[in-house]
Amino acid sequence: MTRKQKVLRINAEIIMIFGVLFALAAIPWVYSWISFFFDIAHWPFNSAPEALDPTGRLMIAISGGLTVGLGAMVWTVATEVLPVAPKEGRKVVLYAAIGWFVTDSTFSVVAGSPLNVLLNLSFLLMMVMPLQRKGPAEADPAQT
């Protein structure tokens, strides 16, 4: 396993941990514990709601589950796909990351939480930076 694959797997694990925390926020006492993430996204600080209604809890559970799934997909690509098909593995992660980033960021701004774009940028970089090629030394081994 290459260093880039290891970094991508660690980053995917971090993404999955955040997803689990967001899903757990559907539980009221957990939400109160991690609501500072939402305070940051809803700047100014302390502007996130103190509690979520049932629809809000459902939406945070769904988004947490999707975040876990995205992290699991990135981890699986790093583990199973990149070793045998680096070009295709990069495309899978890149397309998924860009699709998520553009959609989430655009509608975060529409929802009045533009600071979430900066938070999203950190996750985007965690997914795409390890995939950057540095030169011919990292060429696809299947093409040599």
Brief account:
This protein is mostly helical and 144 residues long.
Model description:
With 144 residues, the chain is mostly helical. The protein has one domain. 72% of the residues lie in helices and 0% in strands. The chain is built from 5 helices and no strands. Helix 1 runs antiparallel to helix 3, helix 3 (54-81) runs antiparallel to helix 4 and helix 4 (86-110) packs antiparallel against helix 5 (115-128). The longest helix has 28 residues, at 54-81. It starts with a helix and ends in a 16-residue tail after the last helix. The relative contact order is 0.15.
Topology of this protein?
Layout: H1 3-24, H2 28-41, H3 54-81, H4 86-110, H5 115-128
Helix pairs in contact: 1-3, 1-5, 3-4, 4-5
Key words describing this protein structure:
single chain
N/C terminus separation: 19 Å
Number of domain units: 1
Total helices: the number is 5
Order of helical and strand elements: HHHHH
Question: Based on helices, strands and strand pairing, what is the structural class?
Answer: mainly alpha
The poorly predicted ranges are none
In this structure, how is the largest beta sheet organized?
none
Tell the overall outline: elongated
Mean pLDDT over the full residue set: 89
| Rounded Rg | 17 Å
